[in-house]
Amino acid sequence: MPPAFANPVFALRADPVRIQLLPSTFDSNGHATPEQRLTCFLIDESVAVDAGSIALAVNGEQREKVRDIIVTHPHMDHIASLPIFIDDLFPTLKTPVRVHATPEVISSLERDIFNWNIYPRFSELENDFGRVMEYVPIPVGQEFEVAHLTVTAVAVNHIVPTVGLVISNGKTTVAFSSDTSETEEFWHLLNRAPSLQALLIEASFPDSMAQLAEVSRHFTPASLKRELSKLSHNELDILAVHIKPAYREIVIQELNALNIPGLGVMESGKIYEW
User: Fold this and answer.
1) How much is the mean pLDDT over the chain?
2) All domains of the chain, ordered by start, with CATH?
């Protein structure tokens, strides 16, 4: 059965969804730069989607609030500072950091990162208050709850097991493609979603690097345009993310040349509200 994305009663009192792409690089004055080398989105100051820059860019208040992190896949730019984030919080955590991921991603994190060689296996450790980290398996294709949000994850087409996400607070729905190339079920899920206000979708390489994009399973502006033809929703914000820093200017030029209504580039550090 298609997931039920919104509870009408809850929708009447739901606040807007606020999303920030956390910066991953800073200039000599400490100001965020637009280049996106690591991926971490913060939703409503409390739930993170991926954790590339989480330990580097959250402020003190956010650090105290974020206890739920959804990991879409285990590539380094999406998990780089997750161990450091938990390490920093270790002595003061009164509730564990909950890492929501598919069983395949959890296995990869345990085998390759939290393995006592690269970093301690925090899922086995406790501080004075109890456990500091726990895994929460994602039921792909089924709606589940993360904090105050409802989430549905579907597999997308990347070189490692990866999920795209549709997330709702009961009033507003936003979608994250994560890293992907041509895919199908993600679009079926989006087209069934009510009140879809925003789509955050990757556009990694310029059109001149279409072969590399295909091999690594990423979008170029041209392939993104083809994929967006599968979307039946109109009048929503489409924000390109995951642009490789070395090609940022040309990718932005090519995206602008598409003249797709609502399409823009997400700015790191800016808080978007829907």
Assistant:
1) 94
2) 8-273 (3.60.15.10)
